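Justification of computing resources. Each target in the renewal requires a structure prediction run like the one illustrated here; the chain below, 329 residues long, is used simply to show the kind of job we budget for.
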Amino acid sequence: MFNPPTVLDAQGLLDKAFHRASKATSSKGRNRIERGRNLAVAKIQTAADVLTSALERYTKGFPSLDRIPPFYRELIDATVGVLALRKNLAAINWARTKIRELQKAYPRRIQHAGSPQAIAGIRSEAFGRFSSVIKQIANALKGLQDARFHLRHFPDIDPELPTIVVAGYPNVGKSQFMRSVSSGKPRVAPYPFTTKGVSVGHLEIRYSRYQVIDTPGLLDRPMEKRNPMERQAIAALAHLADLVVFLLDPSETCGYDLPAQLRLLDEVRTRFPEAPILVVENKCDILRAETDRPKVSALTGEGVTEILADAIRLATSHVPAAAPPLGSG
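Resulting structure tokens:
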């Protein structure tokens, strides 16, 4: 979905700029002093161009936080921090502007230098100022490196497609269910938090395309105590779901008792009262509870086709309602 440019650290950026400047040449000038001035200016201009071009590429290469879909904004806030990313991009932009100012100022000074020693001194001063500016944004560059890592691993989601979100406690079988109904191949293993982020699968039925999203395991605890993975799941529920398939594990082999799972279900219903929720009991191959809820075994495939048909019907008949913001409630 996102592919920000590679971001060099402060020293790497300076090394690149000064190495390029060292290769700059100029033979113009009527005498030694003029040629020295022109060469010094060429070196300063080259270093400044390398730095400002890189910084501009960094700022333009990251997504506009005011234009991306709300789902991705929530993912950025959960993994990187929207305010932190804004601050880092602003620092990069400040440095670019500052170096442009220096790029204009130092050549003017060099034109008034009357000796090779004075020219060399001004050129060294310019390079020192460039270094000072870049070192001031070392932490911002590091922050962009970290942000790039997260953004490149975000799932590719189309907000316009009908979307089924699979939710529930860890280990209730969400990833296995998603694997059985879609093209998605999330990792499946018998321990909590196997799903490290939001995974996306697709399916086509009668020439229509649908998204199926596997969320991280949600724990039954207040929103402010949820970790970034859980917040990603809430972001999916809030901004993407045309339908929530909420999986229960009556066998409790997931490691959580059924009352705890039902409390989480109540929380989802309370937080998203307009969203249709299809409650399904998974692992019927282990335990078939005497309830009226539909039952499936994502492992064996029993009941999956019928649940998928119900899910498609409900998802395509639902107009998504606005959900409360993550910090409310």
